[in-house]
Amino acid sequence: MMKIIAFASAALLFTGCFEKKSEAVSHAELFTSDFSKRAFSHAVKLDHAEQDIFMLGKSFFSKPWVEAPSVTTARDGLGPLFSANSCIHCHPHNGGGVALNEALGVERALVLRLSLSHMKNINNSLLAREGFTPEPTYGAQLSISGAGTAYEGGVEVHHRTIKGFYDDATPYELTLPTYTPSNLQYGALDSHANIAPRLALPLVGLGLLERLGDEAILANEDINDSDRDGISGKANRIYSPEHNKTMIGRFAYKATAVSVKHQSADAAHNDMSLTNPLYPSENCTTAQKECNEAPKGRYAFDLPNERLEAIAFYLTHLKAPLAQINPTTKEGRDIFNQIGCNKCHIEEFTTLDGVKIRPYSDLLLHDMGVGLSDGHSDFLATPNEFRTTPLWGLGRREVTSGAMNLLHDGRARTVEEAILWHGGEAQSAKEAFAALPKIKRTLLVEFLRGL
Amino acid sequence: MKREILLSSAVMAMLGFGLSACGGGGGSSNNTPTGITTAQKSAVLNTYATIAEKNYEDALTDAQALKEAIDAFVADPTQTKMDAAKAAWKSARESYGTTEIFRLSNGPVDAESGWVATMYGAPEGQMNAWPLDENMIDYTTDATGATTSGNIIDTTGIFTPTGGEDVNVTTITKEALAALNENGGDANVASGYHAIEFLLWGQDQDYASFIDDTVTNGATTAGQRALSDFTSAANADRRKAYLAAAAELLVDDLTAISNAWQSENAPNCTTGLGCYRGALLGTLSGTDAEKNIAPDDALRDIFVGMGVFIKSELANERMAVAVLTPSEEDEHSCFSDNTHRDIATNYQGFVNVLKGEYRGTSQGSSFYSLLGTAQKGEVDTLITSINTKVEAINTAAQSEHFDYQIKEGSSGRQNIVNAKNAMRDLGDKMVGVASEFGISLTTDDVTDSEETQI
What would the DSSP string read from start to end of A145-170? Predict the structure, then answer.
């Protein structure tokens, strides 16, 4: 039965090619069914001039940066304090990061964000621009490497095992990591410092998400849960250095970036200390004398606007993953909807230019419970709140990154573990999952692994 | 049976794998096999193997000549012998350049997995990795005019490549260079043609920004390493040892790959001699027979490799990135300013394999010869167009090396842009070529989505 259908639609396509661009063909130009490690690396259809920008962006995304001054003037300006020397280091194959290496050491892709609680030492102008108050000595992020100056510190991790049971008495084990700074080189952290671990997110479908209208995101907002379904949903309103105004955030764990360019510039600044038009200053605090006095890159910005935009162009012109559709995944999808996952992991949106996309996210902030809280507030996002992670590409994450590390600190090693960590607004959906018979849990996971 | 194959490729198409063939491939997307027989497939594969055999033999001979010239120079470092070594390097690049089309096809030079990788060890990166961080090999002059140190040449004892593992370099041997190569990262290149090139020519100090940088050797001047680096300068002996070891390793690697393709003796899958050739042509017998590669699989690998090489490697990595940046750091042979020859020979290698020719002589029936009229016409148009552009790059190189042709304002710049665009199109054309052999590819297949590691 399947085969006959397949043959008929394929035949239609092959004959239809020359007549006109059918909808299905343009669909294939935006999406890919590849499940290999290259799943997140395919370009959408581009003309020669666009391919050139794409390549330039890919080059600056992939190529390691070096410290200034160097022979390679096109790519110097790294640091002096940094977490990694290239974007791709933490986003292997454009996928998400992996938190631990084989020796259980913490990888560069897991960074520690540092802040002071909103309630203390408030600097309102800083808060308005940055969304939080950075730790006074170390800044917003702990840099584990330094060039020509002392690095800030290392990262240690301790794990605690949490055991539980599904309703059918099947046992499960979760692992709770606690990340702490070690070997701090600039003295102790402020006593009110909050440490929020963050694992590099996969760079999936970003161009299509960027092409969603704010209205489409705001349509699902229900800040006071007026429909009393237990799900509130709040858009983050953040300062955009690109547009110099407050806008709706849609990227990163707490929806703290308006655009891919914004997030790329933020990462260039925080992760590699590359000065750029959106973050023109070096990533040093006033307390870090050597950092401030270290040799600078030779030009106004380490990452000038043209190259920053090329990186954003690259990331927004990658094909998005197409879900596997078969009888198993269809059943799994029904279960996904029945237990209410789809209330936040909203399946379908239409972009401003009319493309139907299936990101499985509302891009809104939700309270995920104290179990997932990272203690970090960021603009309107409270410590317990996270943006619904888009699920497209979930099934490719293991092959692109080499391991499945889910949630903001990579604590979940499987799809099941990630679900079991859900709390807060997702508590009832999580409980419904735990109450499912094993076969239905398996079907649900199969569906998610097919995304 | 045929119907089954057709059906399964149709299913693939529906799932999204095949759809972009319509958008990107252009030309005839009629997926019906054109009646190319098994015998015809064997014949074209045989031609392909013959070209590989002859070309690698020539590349090996020229690498041996390079080694002899280097050994002579090392024994008696005079300007004449240094110039002879440089000439031998350029000559060796000519025959090696056309072999690069055999890359990216799961062949002995760079197969990443399976028995081919185990048997031949994928020495491509050891022979031809670029761009290299010359700062790791020997002193350089940095952007502020300071001389760098802390490299393999000036280190005695243990050397640690950036991000890599320790290697003892008390004596610079081919084993040490092999251990250092790509140790800690792709840019940590310690061996191969480009390491030798750097040692013979030295830096060609035309910096990345042609607008802001004033340090330059000029439009027709390559690197200017002084003879004294090999005579009176500090570490002269280590520099000579490095050159000799790098040349020896290159000859070793090319010997192994040349052996993989040889046809004079019966295949021996213990020593590797002729084993890959036998597998590709399906002639291995006994317990080795399981290594035989089905003709359609072999053709698929070759067509994908040809497409990826001309599009992603040559057009994109070696030309587009250099011209777009624009950055001398991203030209292929940046020390010797021989990049125009790399482009010409790499492209010639593609044409050789497509048309079944070597050094202008037909080697048997070719992929091209079995194409339909329409497909041939489209290929011809692209080849004619690229021929002109590649010639223009080479003609212009007489008054302006490639590193100056990529500069904003150079009259050669647009030609390079046009050349790489046409090469991309030729890479995509492999989708159409493959389809005439009943092999379904998409433009994604002939694009290395992770090509840029510059």
Answer: EESSS----EEEEEEEEEEEE-TTS-
